[in-house]
Amino acid sequence: MSDVATSGVQQVFQLKSASVSMTALELYFFDNDRFEETLRDKISQAPGFFRDIPLIISLEKYEGLDSELDFFKIIGACRRNNIHVIGVRGGNDDQRRLARGASLALMPGGGQRDRDHEAQATAEKAESPAAPPPQTIVEAPPTKIISQPVRSGQQVHAPDGDLVILAPVQAGAEVLAAGNIHVYGPLRGRALAGIHGAESARIFCQSLEAELVSIAGHYKISEDLQDNGWKSAVQIQLRDDLLVVAPLDKA
Each residue of 44-101: pLDDT tens digit? Predict the structure, then answer.
């Protein structure tokens, strides 16, 4: 008699929450040829960063509100370049219907237009005033501390708070955090802070030698960084949708 039969039914799977770093593509308008040309140009700047990444199509700033989007063309162009479209954020009812027809996940929008739309839909359904939410105690997000060097090929992930690394981050390594990233040594690999969209997140390091840095999806590659603060102690932050590098002693 088999072990499965003697010990009962074996569990097939278990569902658990997971925090995954994803990139959003803010679409302003869609032209098939220009879309793929621009996509290839972006990928050429940091091919290792974009290969096989999950992608969200954001329609919060899309101008063609009355036009039908061909999501299959968008998905095809991305797949030809090893990028996987998994969902759509924002958009009107027709666009979300088309996205559902292309088997894409639907995610709530964060733009003002989407918030107004959702608020109107909620108001139409409401029959009585909502009860005040219960008071909750908000705890500070945890900080993950790494004391060993992060070597090439390794990934260190702090999905809920800050990440502090008391050693070098080698080339080919990747460190990610929902909050700030502190590297008390040379940063030679890739550092992605604010991976859930926190634009106030910052990156601090004792020697900037990074392959790529990113805050809330805005990134710069090595070639963009070498003219400002290269191989010195800096902090990197987001100002007006631009990554700004400043010496730590002048921050």
Answer: 877 777 788 888 999 988 886 556 789 999 999 999 999 999 999 988 888 888 888 8
For the four alpha carbons of 64, 98, 118 and 61, in that order, the dihedral sign comes to negative
> What average pLDDT is seen over the chain?
83
Exposure string over 82-102, b if 16+ CB within 10 A, otherwise e: ebebbbbbbbeeebbebbeee
The Cα angle at residue 21 between residues 70 and 225, in degrees rounded to 5: 100
Other beta carbons less than 10 A from residue 29's beta carbon: 12
How far apart, in whole angstroms, are the C-alpha atoms of residue 39 and residue 51? 12
Task: Check residue 203 and give its pLDDT.
Answer: 97
Q: Which long-range contacts (CB under 8 A, 24 or more apart) does 30-33 make?
A: 30/64, 30/67, 30/69, 30/70, 30/73, 30/74, 32/70, 32/73, 32/77
Residues comprising the chain, all counted: 251
